[in-house]
């Protein structure tokens, strides 16, 4: 599997996966690597990890899952030794019923159903739910995990790399299409989540969307304004709009 990596800062890389264009990122310190999201299946993630091992000698000790959608989490079983982090409240999305929904969503979006079922069967709840913020020491580099949702989902986690002035946003920000709001989104809270994201990264940061090219604070602010307009009424059905190329539960 040929993957293309960008290096937005020294020791920070990300790839945009083929198919759904979701971001998987990696942040390396001198002691450990943090993976940001796990991709849509364990075969893809195994290939990702091969690439990362060639690039970084440090072990991938941590996995931050920005939110529980199939294209970001079903690859997690390929990395069983990592400590997994989610935003608060995400553990309840690991029940057999919720995992069956995840598989159904993956299949509806064209993923291999057998592979999705196998991965979901091995997907276990996160060890750590981040309540507000948590700081990880990767060796010579600290990263901040922040629970800024609800917004795109009930549990949205973002990852700030202060020394690189970079924030991984998950699907709270999308550049390659309109942000997806499915039935598990909290449209009325989304703008506030982006306010928290902007407060974390500040004006100078670069923001890595869940889908699409790296953007600046101005882009995030404009998307915040669009979302606020789009969901002013927060009416049923408002969640049906979105980028058809971008997978989303219930979209
Ligand atoms: Zn999503």
From TrEMBL:
<dbReference type="Pfam" id="PF00753">
    <property type="entry name" value="Lactamase_B"/>
</dbReference>
<feature type="region of interest" description="Disordered">
    <location>
        <begin position="230"/>
        <end position="251"/>
    </location>
</feature>
<protein>
    <submittedName>
        <fullName>MBL fold metallo-hydrolase</fullName>
    </submittedName>
</protein>
<feature type="domain" description="Metallo-beta-lactamase">
    <location>
        <begin position="21"/>
        <end position="211"/>
    </location>
</feature>
<dbReference type="InterPro" id="IPR050855">
    <property type="entry name" value="NDM-1-like"/>
</dbReference>
<dbReference type="InterPro" id="IPR036866">
    <property type="entry name" value="RibonucZ/Hydroxyglut_hydro"/>
</dbReference>
<dbReference type="InterPro" id="IPR001279">
    <property type="entry name" value="Metallo-B-lactamas"/>
</dbReference>
């Amino acid at each position: 599997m040929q993957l293309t990596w960008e290096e937005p800062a020294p020791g920070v890389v990300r790839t945009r996966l083929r198919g759904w264009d979701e971001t998987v990122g990696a942040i390396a310190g001198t002691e450990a690597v943090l993976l940001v999201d796990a991709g849509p299946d364990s075969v893809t993630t195994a290939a990702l990890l091969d690439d990362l091992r060639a690039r970084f000698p440090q072990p991938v000790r941590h996995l931050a899952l920005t939110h529980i959608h199939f294209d970001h989490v079903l690859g997690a079983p390929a990395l069983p030794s990592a400590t997994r982090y989610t935003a608060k409240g995400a553990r309840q999305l690991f029940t057999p019923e919720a995992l069956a929904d995840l598989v159904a969503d993956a299949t509806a979006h064209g993923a291999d159903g057998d592979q999705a079922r196998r991965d979901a069967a091995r997907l276990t709840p996160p060890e750590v739910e981040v309540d507000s913020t948590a700081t990880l020491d990767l060796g010579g580099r600290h990263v901040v995990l922040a629970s800024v949702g609800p917004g795109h989902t009930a549990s949205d986690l973002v990852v700030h790399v202060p020394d690189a002035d970079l924030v991984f946003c998950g699907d709270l920000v999308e550049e390659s299409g309109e942000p997806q709001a499915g039935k598990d989104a909290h449209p009325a809270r989304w703008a506030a989540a982006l306010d928290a994201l902007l407060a974390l990264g500040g004006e100078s940061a670069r923001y890595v969307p869940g889908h699409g090219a790296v953007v600046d604070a101005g882009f995030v602010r404009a998307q915040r304004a669009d979302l606020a307009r789009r969901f002013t009424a927060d009416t049923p059905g408002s969640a049906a709009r979105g980028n058809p190329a971008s997978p989303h539960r219930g979209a």
